[in-house]
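Table S2 (continued). Query chain:
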Amino acid sequence: MTRKPLLLIDVDGPLNPYAAQPERRPAGYTTHRMRPSGWTGAESAKPLRVWLNPSHGAELLALANAYELVWATTWKDEANDWIGPHLGLPRLPYIDWPQMHGRAPAGTFWKTQYVLEYARGREFAWVDDDITDADREYADRHHLQRALLMRIDQRIGLLPADFAALARWAVGRRAGF
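Corresponding output:
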C-alpha cells in the first residue's frame, strides 16, 4: 500500500493572516487571544491576537482523505492546543524543528532543510508564507519525490483556490501526473 503524501501546514500566514490590515479582521475569520509558550511578548502584555477561519478546519479534514496532515509551524505541538481545537482538528503530528530560525543552505528559508528531512523521501505538499523560488529549487534538487511548495500570502491566508489546488495535486498523484 502506498503511503499518503504529507500535507505540511504552517499556522502564521496560511491559517492566521497576521499581516492583514492592522485591527481589520479578514472576512470569515474569528479573533482569538492566546498565550503559547513561544509568545515572546512581555508577560504583562496583551495576549497574541490570532485570526482563524473556522471553515479551514473542514477544508483540511476533507484533504485528510488524500494527505497525512502535519503541523509545520513554530507553534510545534502547541498548535494542537491553541489552533487545532478552534478549527475542529484532531491532534496532528508536528515537525519538532532541531533549530528554529537558524542558518539555511543555498539561500533557502530555515524550515526547508528540516521539511525535506521530515519528509524523508515521501511526497509532500507544504503551505507556508515564507516559501520562495530558492526553496522550490532546493526541494527539486534534494527531494526525489514529488513536492508542492505553496507560498500563501500572509495578508490573506489560505483561500478556496488553495484548497482546490491541493486537492488537484493529490488527484494528479493518483493519476500518475
